[in-house]
Amino acid sequence: MKPGLKWLAASMLLALPLSAQALLADCTVAGTGVAFGSYASPGSTSATGTGTVTVTCNGLGLLVSYTIQLTAGNGTFPTRLLKSGATNSLSYNIYTDNARSIVWGDGSAGTSTVTDSYLLSLGNNARNYKAYGLIPGGQNQPAGTYTDTLTITITY
Questions:
Q1: CB within 8 A of 58, min separation 6: which ones?
Q2: What is the Cα gyration radius of the chain?
């Protein structure tokens, strides 16, 4: 890396508290950001990072079942964008798998959602789901802090 060509690129999965009912269970969703760390420009190698989406259900649910969706943020599902200012951007994406081959989205444009269910929930039940991020190498952008905001939605 040459001096001055290093920056911190971070994508935040900001959780908007959402609630829904699964019989007598109340569920909320929260997320931690995906921090990619330093990326040299022009980037000859990819940068990766992970974050977590947590779904917590409280109360009584005989069958708690939900789907977790992510918005496209800046850009589109095939190419989400981390932005720095109005004109600088890095393409990246968020995946459901460690191989970073299944784009996590809303089920449209070739993306997948994460679904889960469980029987007989009483009290608090929190489940964590990894979000796997990837910034492809070879992108030439000026130094800066690059960010994006995604909204997490759970549906029953």
A1: 25, 26, 27, 123, 124, 125
A2: 17
Please say whether the beta carbons of 1 and 22 come within 8 A.
no
Domains of the chain: 6-155 (2.60.40.1090)
Nearest to 156 by CA among 117, 124, 111: 117
pLDDT per residue as tens digits for the range 33-89: 998 988 887 767 899 999 999 999 887 777 888 999 999 999 999 999 999 999 999
Q: Is the predicted pLDDT of residue 20 greater than 50, yes or no?
A: no
What is the pLDDT at residue 24?
65
Cα–Cα distance, 106 to 94 (Å, whole number): 12
Centroid of chain to Cα 3: 30
CA distance 149 to 136: 19
Cα–Cα distance measured from residue 38 to residue 62, given in angstroms and rounded to the nearest whole number: 46
